[in-house]
Write a structure and sequence with these properties.
single chain; alpha+beta; 55% helix; three-stranded antiparallel β-sheet; 612 residues
């Protein structure tokens, strides 16, 4: 079963790496052939297993191919690209607000271009470059002047300029066009003019479930920001509650990156599991004490349903509600699916192994969103959970055959176990982190050792409680939540101060990454703590990845790299001993430029630390 589920995910990934799609009937024919051969070879277990795994891979490939063909069939007509389009539609998502623009998903209901325009488009509404005061020199411009307060469910009549999705194309760079395809965005553009099409927003029945959820998220965001009008880390509280990270400052992201806690600022699986566990524990406590309701109920609640089953249902519902509030990202989907697997197993009195639950979650995520298998969050999320399972098994092995201990000894052992698991996740994800980002935080273990319990058991619960409370009571709770994170930042800033807090490494060759993955497996396999030779071999397998360097041109030769930076030109000339950079590209805004987005990642990934 596990190999079949992994094969399905591998098939989805294989399709995403193809240069072109294939006719869907070819995948159907290959799948039918594999199943036929499996039926013929049903009495040969090894051959049968191979054919079934192959069939699962072909099924994943065909499923992803069919989904991609359906999505790519929706295109913006070239005749309407760059021209004014008058469209009426609905704001379909929580808008992302920045200093000079509001970016939002617009669901087009009708337009003067008819079917030539996709129904889902990503728009930017830029503000007018007007000054704060007439004739006041030195006054900063109000860049948000003229941008309305957009809310999910509002119907607008807009004049748009649209273009087909495209992005910069650089080796190792972010593939924005693929990301828009994964989000089902088939056109992007900006708003020239607009006005409300109706005085009121859509009704609840007309809006549908999706927009109703987005309205709920928008209301929660307004509630938090109103309660924390001048708080330094109010955007972080918003990110922890509704998953909206657009308000977090660039320098804050740099701090989180240097200390390796970026995963805690977003709604991660750890937060969802913690909230589900707390809600389940609270509900189970009430369920056990419900015998006092016997005067109204003929049969007490614990006799109608065992308390563990009631707790499993409560945990699943709490996780589902929090995932909706978070926007249903890949980590949230993975956690919800895993919790649902455990809850269903508890309701049906089954014991599902953790590895099988993880495989089922990955396969279901690939079915719902075949493009997720190419995202960094998918691999980091599932990789972290797999490493936690292995590390937890090592901890359980170390606890076996121990006599009863006092509370202080149990506390010390629990603290040591948590520290061991944290170090296991940090080092276990090292090859994948270097492959994806070409850098890793050296102080990550120390930062997460305090940040994980602080954010998970103090900041996030207080933020959720404050978001649920009415205005008079919400402000002190949310203020305490924000203060707890502000205190944590003092520790993070001290850790991030040294220049060596981040280790930058060039991209290693594929063979070195494979060896490093095997080395991590030897370091983390349950039982390996008794065999130091295994650990030594695992550490040796990490050496090629650490020492990898990109080859430089030979003496007398040179290499030129021309960067795709949109408008303008930028080129890097490399020789055996010198590196010259011609231009750094355009500036996109106050906090974005081509050098930071394109050139610096390339230099970092190729081990270039200085320019001549």
């Amino acid at each position: 079963m596990r190999l079949g589920l992994v094969g399905f995910v591998a098939g989805c990934m294989a399709l995403q790496m193809q240069a072109a799609l294939v006719p869907a009937w070819q995948a159907v024919v290959v799948l039918a052939l594999c199943l036929l051969l499996a039926f013929v070879a049903r009495r040969k277990p090894i051959l049968l297993s191979v054919l079934l795994v192959t069939s699962a891979s072909v099924a994943g490939f065909g499923w992803s191919d069919w989904r991609a063909q359906q999505r790519l069939s929706v295109v913006l007509s070239p005749a309407w690209e760059g021209k004014d389009i008058i469209a009426t539609g609905v704001v379909a998502e929580l808008p992302q607000v920045s200093e000079d623009a509001t970016r939002f998903l617009f669901q087009i209901e009708s337009s003067d271009a008819g079917d030539a325009v996709p129904s889902r488009v990503r728009l930017s509404w830029y503000g007018a470059r007007t000054w704060g005061g007439a004739g006041d020199e030195g006054v900063e411009p109000d860049r948000r002047a003229g941008i309305p307060d957009l809310q999910p469910g509002q119907r607008w009549k807009l004049t748009l300029r649209l273009k087909r999705p495209h992005s910069l194309a650089n080796p190792g760079g972010f593939d924005g066009e693929y990301a828009m395809l994964a989000d089902d965005i088939r056109a992007t553009g900006y708003v020239r003019t607009g006005k409300r099409a109706q005085n009121i927003a859509l009704g609840e029945a007309e809006a549908g479930f999706g927009i109703s959820v987005e309205r709920w998220r928008a209301a929660v965001r307004r509630h938090i920001l109103a309660a924390l009008p001048d708080a330094r880390y109010a955007p972080v509280i918003v990110a922890l509650v509704v998953g909206d990270q657009s308000g977090i400052a660039r320098e804050d992201w740099e701090l989180f990156r240097r200390t390796g806690i970026s995963h805690l600022v977003s709604i991660s699986g750890l937060h969802i599991t913690m909230i589900a566990g707390l809600f389940a524990a609270f509900w189970m406590a009430l369920w056990r004490r419900s015998f006092g309701l016997a005067r109204w109920l003929r049969t007490p609640l614990p006799l109608r349903m065992p308390t563990p089953r009631a707790g499993a249902i409560a945990a699943m519902l709490a996780a589902f509600g929090y995932c909706l509030l978070a926007g249903m990202g890949v980590p949230a989907q993975r956690t919800l699916l895993m919790l649902s697997t455990v809850a269903i197993a508890r309701l049906t009195d089954r014991n599902v192994p953790a590895s099988l639950s993880l495989c089922w979650a990955a396969a279901v995520v690939a079915v719902v969103d075949p493009w997720a298998v190419m995202s960094a969050g998918f691999w980091l999320s599932f990789g972290a959970v797999a490493i936690i399972f292995l590390a937890a098994q090592m901890v359980l092995d170390g606890r076996r055959n121990r006599e009863a201990e006092g509370w202080w000894a149990r506390y010390q052992r629990g603290f040591a176990s948590s520290t061991r698991i944290q170090f296991a996740v940090t080092f276990g994800l090292l090859p994948m982190t270097l492959l994806l980002f070409q850098q890793t935080s050296v102080v990550s273990a120390a930062a997460n050792g305090l940040a994980i319990p602080a954010v998970s058991f103090l900041t996030t619960p207080l933020a959720l409680a404050g978001a649920a409370l009415p205005d008079p009571l919400a402000q002190p709770v949310l203020a305490l939540s924000e203060a707890s994170f502000r205190w944590l930042v003092v520790w993070l800033e001290w850790l991030a101060r040294p220049s060596w807090s981040v280790w930058v490494a060039p991209v290693a060759p594929a063979w070195a990454l494979l060896l490093a993955t095997g080395g991590v497996a030897l370091l983390l396999v349950p039982g390996a703590h008794r065999a130091w030779a295994w650990r030594a071999q695992g550490a040796l397998l990490l050496v090629p990845m650490v020492l990898a360097r990109v080859p430089v041109p030979l003496p007398g030769e040179f290499r030129v790299v021309a960067f795709d930076i949109g408008q303008g030109a930028a080129a890097l000339v490399e020789t055996a001993n010198h590196r010259l950079l011609f231009d750094t590209g355009p500036r996109y805004g106050d906090h974005a430029d081509a050098a930071a987005r394109v050139i610096t990642p390339y230099l970092r990934g190729h081990g270039i630390e200085a320019l001549d």
